[in-house]
Write a structure and sequence with these properties.
alpha+beta
Length: 99
Protein backbone atom coordinates (compact mmCIF):
# COMPACT_ATOMS: atom_id res chain seq x y z
CA UNK A 1 0.00 0.00 0.00
CA UNK A 2 1.22 3.52 -0.70
CA UNK A 3 0.08 6.97 0.37
CA UNK A 4 0.68 9.50 -2.41
CA UNK A 5 1.60 13.09 -1.56
CA UNK A 6 1.37 16.30 -3.55
CA UNK A 7 4.79 17.36 -4.81
CA UNK A 8 6.72 19.45 -2.28
CA UNK A 9 4.38 18.87 0.65
CA UNK A 10 4.28 16.54 3.65
CA UNK A 11 0.59 17.13 4.42
CA UNK A 12 -1.36 13.89 4.65
CA UNK A 13 -3.97 13.83 1.92
CA UNK A 14 -7.54 13.49 3.20
CA UNK A 15 -7.95 10.43 0.99
CA UNK A 16 -5.33 8.57 3.07
CA UNK A 17 -7.52 8.21 6.18
CA UNK A 18 -9.33 5.08 5.05
CA UNK A 19 -6.15 3.24 4.12
CA UNK A 20 -4.38 4.31 7.30
CA UNK A 21 -7.35 3.30 9.44
CA UNK A 22 -7.15 -0.19 7.90
CA UNK A 23 -3.47 -0.32 8.91
CA UNK A 24 -4.42 0.76 12.44
CA UNK A 25 -6.99 -2.04 12.68
CA UNK A 26 -4.46 -4.59 11.47
CA UNK A 27 -1.88 -3.50 14.02
CA UNK A 28 -4.24 -3.21 16.97
CA UNK A 29 -5.90 -6.56 16.18
CA UNK A 30 -2.48 -8.26 16.39
CA UNK A 31 -0.01 -6.36 18.61
CA UNK A 32 2.87 -8.59 17.46
CA UNK A 33 2.71 -7.06 13.97
CA UNK A 34 5.01 -4.24 12.89
CA UNK A 35 4.75 -1.65 10.16
CA UNK A 36 7.51 -0.26 7.96
CA UNK A 37 7.01 3.24 6.54
CA UNK A 38 9.35 3.83 3.61
CA UNK A 39 9.07 7.42 2.37
CA UNK A 40 10.21 9.05 -0.88
CA UNK A 41 10.29 12.60 -2.20
CA UNK A 42 11.27 14.08 -5.55
CA UNK A 43 14.47 16.11 -5.58
CA UNK A 44 14.06 19.43 -7.34
CA UNK A 45 16.15 22.49 -8.12
CA UNK A 46 15.08 24.28 -4.92
CA UNK A 47 16.95 21.96 -2.57
CA UNK A 48 18.03 18.82 -4.32
CA UNK A 49 18.79 15.57 -2.59
CA UNK A 50 19.07 17.00 0.93
CA UNK A 51 15.64 18.60 0.74
CA UNK A 52 14.18 15.38 -0.69
CA UNK A 53 15.63 13.38 2.20
CA UNK A 54 14.18 15.81 4.78
CA UNK A 55 10.80 15.89 3.04
CA UNK A 56 10.63 12.10 2.87
CA UNK A 57 11.42 11.91 6.60
CA UNK A 58 8.70 14.46 7.41
CA UNK A 59 6.19 12.48 5.36
CA UNK A 60 7.04 9.26 7.17
CA UNK A 61 6.83 10.98 10.55
CA UNK A 62 3.41 12.42 9.66
CA UNK A 63 2.11 8.96 8.79
CA UNK A 64 3.67 7.64 12.02
CA UNK A 65 1.96 10.40 14.04
CA UNK A 66 -1.41 9.50 12.49
CA UNK A 67 -0.96 5.84 13.42
CA UNK A 68 0.12 6.70 16.96
CA UNK A 69 -2.80 9.10 17.41
CA UNK A 70 -5.06 6.15 16.59
CA UNK A 71 -3.42 3.91 19.23
CA UNK A 72 -0.55 2.16 17.46
CA UNK A 73 2.47 1.76 19.74
CA UNK A 74 5.66 3.55 18.68
CA UNK A 75 7.92 0.45 18.89
CA UNK A 76 5.70 -1.19 16.25
CA UNK A 77 6.58 1.47 13.67
CA UNK A 78 9.80 1.61 11.66
CA UNK A 79 10.50 4.78 9.65
CA UNK A 80 12.78 4.90 6.62
CA UNK A 81 13.45 8.16 4.78
CA UNK A 82 14.69 7.25 1.30
CA UNK A 83 14.82 10.71 -0.31
CA UNK A 84 14.78 10.71 -4.12
CA UNK A 85 15.26 7.28 -5.64
CA UNK A 86 14.37 8.38 -9.16
CA UNK A 87 11.26 7.55 -11.09
CA UNK A 88 7.97 9.33 -11.45
CA UNK A 89 6.27 7.96 -8.34
CA UNK A 90 8.66 9.37 -5.75
CA UNK A 91 6.14 11.43 -3.74
CA UNK A 92 4.82 8.65 -1.53
CA UNK A 93 5.09 6.63 1.66
CA UNK A 94 5.04 2.87 1.15
CA UNK A 95 3.41 0.99 4.02
CA UNK A 96 4.24 -2.63 4.71
CA UNK A 97 2.71 -4.52 7.62
CA UNK A 98 4.82 -7.49 8.70
CA UNK A 99 3.54 -10.57 10.51
Amino acid sequence: MAIRFASGTADLPASAAGELDAVVRSLTDDPTRRVVLQAYATADASGGANRAKRLSLTRALNVRAYLMDKGVRSPSIEVRAMGDQGGGTADRVDIRVTP
